Amino acid sequence: MLETRDLTIRFGGHVAVNSVSCAFAPGTLTAIVGPNGAGKTTYFNLISGQLKATAGTVSLDGQPLSHLSPSARTHAGLGRAFQLTNLFPNLTVLENVRLAVQATRAGAHRHGLNLWSIWSDHKALTERAEQILADVALEPRAHATVASLPHGDQRKLEVALLMALEPKVFMFDEPTAGMHAAEAPVILDLIRKLKQDKTKTILLVEHKMDVVRELADRIIVLHNGTLVADGEPAEVIASPVVQEAYLGIAKEAA
Ligand SMILES: Nc1ncnc2c1ncn2[C@@H]1O[C@H](COP(=O)(O)OP(=O)(O)OP(=O)(O)O)[C@@H](O)[C@H]1O
Ligand SMILES: [Mg+2]
């Protein structure tokens, strides 16, 4: 269970996330919606540790994470899509994903150093990386350098790297933003597949209400940094506070 308690951050006088208390259970996909500037991305940054909270706590399975660095939180099982600036731009797509798989597996089990294990590990890592690339439909780009990728493929690679981490908690922040209409279904299929693994906790920030309606088990609404609604999708979408709070989004999706 991922839990935030009274999570708050101020930027100067502006409270971007205001005392948000919420728990996210394994096997649940929670959509986080709200107007532009509501604090959705900031909330993710507080959970992943990219931003330091002014007040409040984050915990995973009862373990406090608030004092941990972003990489320590990743190690604890929090998966946030990578910023591509963290990658090796002159290595290929496959090499980058293989390194991410390797980093994850190295944490899981260490072998003594012998030629057989190096060779068999290398083969297993490559196969796993290739599988992940197939899952996000990036196989045709496997041997392209990251620096050469068009935007849509960069977004797919971000998701591929998240998969490679095998986290307990997946945080997707508008995963299909900037993709061509033809590319988005691959990512949405992948999230759909992830949902079938009932041990995963999935958080999805998404403006497209048709996507939210289809994928979400639960919707929470942020408005001016405050949690204003939380519940079953149909119920939340119909609630007056939501209709009022983000009429703009409803129009956009229509
Ligand atoms: N590093 C920062 N310094 C100062 N203000 C910030 C910073 N990051 C975010 N903010 C402010 O916090 C508020 C919430 O921003 P945030 O990006 O979390 O919104 P959002 O809900 O993700 O919006 P969108 O739907 O447009 O992505 C905004 O008013 C934003 O300007
Ligand atoms: Mg945002």
TrEMBL record:
<dbReference type="GO" id="GO:0005524">
    <property type="term" value="F:ATP binding"/>
</dbReference>
<keyword id="KW-0472">Membrane</keyword>
<keyword id="KW-0813">Transport</keyword>
<keyword id="KW-0067">ATP-binding</keyword>
<dbReference type="GO" id="GO:0016887">
    <property type="term" value="F:ATP hydrolysis activity"/>
</dbReference>
<dbReference type="GO" id="GO:0005886">
    <property type="term" value="C:plasma membrane"/>
</dbReference>
<keyword id="KW-1003">Cell membrane</keyword>
<dbReference type="InterPro" id="IPR003439">
    <property type="entry name" value="ABC_transporter-like_ATP-bd"/>
</dbReference>
<protein>
    <submittedName>
        <fullName>ABC transporter ATP-binding protein</fullName>
    </submittedName>
</protein>
<dbReference type="Pfam" id="PF12399">
    <property type="entry name" value="BCA_ABC_TP_C"/>
</dbReference>
<dbReference type="InterPro" id="IPR027417">
    <property type="entry name" value="P-loop_NTPase"/>
</dbReference>
<dbReference type="InterPro" id="IPR032823">
    <property type="entry name" value="BCA_ABC_TP_C"/>
</dbReference>
<dbReference type="Pfam" id="PF00005">
    <property type="entry name" value="ABC_tran"/>
</dbReference>
<dbReference type="InterPro" id="IPR051120">
    <property type="entry name" value="ABC_AA/LPS_Transport"/>
</dbReference>
<dbReference type="InterPro" id="IPR003593">
    <property type="entry name" value="AAA+_ATPase"/>
</dbReference>
<keyword id="KW-0547">Nucleotide-binding</keyword>
